[in-house]
Amino acid sequence: MEKEYENRNICAKCGGYCCKKCGCDYLISDFDSLKLEYLDKILATGRVSIVATLSFKNLPNGKLAVTPILSLRSRNIERSVIDLLSLKKSCAMLTSNGCTYSLNERPSGGVHLIPNEKDFHHCRSDIDKIEELYKWLPYQKVLAKLVKKYTGMSVMAKLKEDVINLFCAIIIKGYQDIAYEELVDINDMLPLLEQAFPEELHTAFIICRPKRKK
Ligand code: SF4
Ligand code: SF4
Q: Which ligand is nearest to the CA of 103?
C-alpha cells in the first residue's frame, strides 16, 4: 500500500501536536542550492532558523566535549533566525487551519512524518533523522558564516549564550507555551549541559536566580 504523507483530517483532529512541539526539520534535499547566498535568502524569508543538534563526547581528561551540528528548521514562534539552542516552541507556520505550506512546499522532516489515526503520539517518520542530519556536515562552514553574519559571533560563542539563556529559562521556570514533551527532552539533556557548560551554569545562576528579599 502506498504511504499517505498527508492526511489533513487526521492532523486536524489531532490539532497539530507535532507542530506545537517544534517546527520541522529541513533536509539538504529541500534546497536547490546550499551556497551561502542562496541559504541567506531562505533565512531572510523569516520562516527558517539555523539550529544546532548537540553531540556529546566524554574526553580522557573527564570533561565532556560538545559538537554542535548545524542545520535548518522551520522557525518557531518568538524565536530568532539563529536559534541554536532554546526551549522549542510551536512552529510559526502552524495556523488554525493546519500547516501554511502545501505538501510540496513543506520541509521534508514534516512531510515524512506519517499521520497515525489511532494515536498521534505515535506518528513515525519514515526517514532516518540522524542519517539526514549528518548530510548537513559538509555545509557546516557555510552555516557558521551565516551565524557570524546574523549574530557577529562564532558558533561556539553563540551556543554558550544560548546555553545561558536556556539555563535562565529553567531557573525562572519560563515554560509558557512549551510542550510537555519538550520539557521531558530538555530534562533528559540537562545533566549533559550542566557537565559540559559549568561556567555558563554559574553565570545563569548569577544573572537569573531570584534575589532573596531582605
Ligand atoms: S503528523 Fe501526527 S502529530 Fe503531527 S499533526 Fe498529524 S496526526 Fe498530529
Ligand atoms: S512547517 Fe508545517 S508541518 Fe512543519 S512544523 Fe510547521 S506547521 Fe508543522
A: 2
